[in-house]
């Protein structure tokens, strides 16, 4: 599979996982590959309830914590891990996740057991 197609498949998969588990997928996903990393930048993530909650500092803290912790938990599921591994053809070692509530921007870094040998970017 060429790198552009792989990046597109990763972007679509990440969007669908978020939509299924959070109730709303991101409006825009960009996937980049670097060595053994697949780096996904997700914009437009907040649900209506989360937009209301982030009006306070405590709400911002809670949404960020819930988003980052929950996404890591989602990828502990064997079927979810298996699908991302199938797409890139490598074993998922770990996942790093962060969320900036003010920018409504999430970043997920998938770390695999070997370089993915691609450098192209895909935006959906």
Helix content: 40-55%
What summary fits the major beta sheet? 5 strands, antiparallel
Number of strands: 5
Task: Please mark out the parts with pLDDT under 50 across 5 or more consecutive residues, or reply none.
Answer: none
Q: Treating each run of at least 4 consecutive H or I residues as one helix, how many helices?
A: 4
- Total domain modules: 1
Query: Mean pLDDT score, rounded?
Result: 93
Q: What structural class results from the helix and strand content?
A: alpha+beta
Shape: elongated
Order of helices and strands: HEEHHHEEE
Radius of gyration, CA atoms, in whole angstroms? 14 Å
The largest beta-sheet arranges its strands as: 3-4-2-1-5
Q: Strand portion, in percent?
A: 25-35%
Characterization of the model:
It is a single chain. This protein has 124 residues and is of the alpha+beta class. It has one domain. It is 44% helix and 27% strand. It contains four helices and five strands. A five-stranded antiparallel sheet has the order 3-4-2-1-5. A hairpin with a 2-residue loop joins strand 1 (28-34) and strand 2. The chain is elongated and about 45 Å long. The two termini are 18 Å apart.
């Amino acid at each position: 599979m060429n790198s552009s197609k792989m990046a597109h498949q990763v972007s679509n998969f990440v969007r669908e996982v978020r939509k299924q588990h959070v109730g709303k997928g991101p409006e825009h996903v960009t996937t980049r590959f670097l060595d053994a990393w697949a780096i996904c930048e997700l914009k437009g993530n907040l649900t209506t309830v989360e937009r209301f909650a982030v009006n306070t500092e405590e709400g911002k803290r809670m949404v960020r914590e819930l988003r980052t912790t929950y996404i890591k938990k989602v990828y502990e599921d064997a079927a979810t891990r298996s699908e991302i591994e199938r797409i890139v053809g490598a074993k998922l070692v770990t996942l790093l996740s962060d969320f900036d509530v003010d920018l409504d921007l999430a970043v997920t870094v998938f770390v695999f057991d070997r370089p993915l040998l691609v450098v192209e970017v895909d935006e959906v």
